[in-house]
Amino acid sequence: MKLTSLIIRNILHRKFLSALTVSTVAITVGLIIFLILCQESVEKGAAKGYGPFDLVIGAEGSETQLVLNTFYHVGAPTGNIPHDLLQSLRTNAQVDEAYAMTTGDNYNGYPIVGMDAGYFETRYGDQRLAEGNLYQHLGEVVVGAHVANSLHIEIGDTFKGGHGLVEEAHHSFDADEAEEEEGHDEHDAFLYKVVGILPALHTPDDRAVFTTIDYAWAVHEESEHKEITAVLIKPRSIGGIQTIKQEFDQLHGIQAAFTSKAIADVLDVVDRGTEIIALVTALCILLAAASILLSLTAAANERKKDVGLLRLIGKSKGYIFTIFIGEGLVIIAAGLIIGIGIGHLGGYLFQDLLFHYTGIQIDASLVSILHLYVIAGALVVGVLSMIIPSYRMYRLQPLQLFKS
């Protein structure tokens, strides 16, 4: 009988134990691969989440909160700042581009963001919309690709927003129907019309609704005392960032935040959480190694007579050793293949959920050097687990094996 056929037959002879060992390896590898996909995707998504805007001006408070709300549309804004700051920033010699942002309202849980339309060209270049045109007038909106797909929005749809960043039960209306609605607050009296749909940008902007910055003043009837949520700054040079920050940090109630630093702080927190998960993963790896060890030990105890017969008919110690090592490698290989598939499937199933809440999407097709480390690590752990039972069978004499 060929060596390969013998190895497969031996594995199938212990179906339950073999399946249990393969499952343990697969779950462990799947968890590690899923964590790798999450970590790599979060780091890449965080890095491109703010584009060329290295500085943001907003109300005094948490820098991390300001950056997350401004670029990732997560959480609440730190407050409002005077609209007059925008002009002083645009005339600043260190500033290349400055765009004001207003926020605070939502449509079915997705943030409504007031932003100068020029933001899109600065951020994404001369990229065409998937449908329609950019907004030009009060009440016109452009929706992100994720919002359009999730809510089945089309060009020409109209809707009413809700105050705050929580989900409200606001649905699309025709213009005639909207006029018949009796509003209970200022939001019920203000109607938005979809004039454009953004292409899939693969950034947090996919999950936002964009309109003119004056929407907030119109909705909340603030025609005189105009405020904005933040100003996004693209500096002329890296050296100018510190100058801008020092100048505006001195103003009362105003802060200037380094975007990259705030994101780095968030990633540090994520890394600390990953360390805890890594500890759990390490325990799973030990469990998988123990499972392989027990599986092969049980196989060795069950097949002492078979091994004795093989030795008596002339098979070498190396042949016996190879059988046991081969069984372990087949089990590990099966667990690796299934586990890698589970990890990427998990990334695919959870990518929309993560994107919905954070604006960062898991790249389920991502393959990195860490995959090779996982494969190599699994093989090393597996081989070490095989050595003890395999070596025991290698040392025993054929007559002793047969008698036992």
From TrEMBL:
Subcellular location(s) of the protein: Cell membrane
Entries under InterPro entries matching the protein: ABC-4/HrtB_transporter, ABC3_permease_C, MacB_PCD
Highest taxon of source: Bacteria
ABC3 transporter permease C-terminal domain segment(s): 279-398
Residue span(s) of domain MacB-like periplasmic core: 18-247
Coiled coil region boundaries: none
UniProt keyword annotation of Glycoprotein present: no
Recorded topology in the membrane: Multi-pass membrane protein
Cited Pfam families: FtsX, MacB_PCD
Keywords for the protein's UniProt record, in alphabetical order: Cell membrane, Membrane, Transmembrane, Transmembrane helix
Protein family membership: Belongs to the ABC-4 integral membrane protein family. HrtB subfamily.
Protein name, entry field: Putative hemin transport system permease protein HrtB
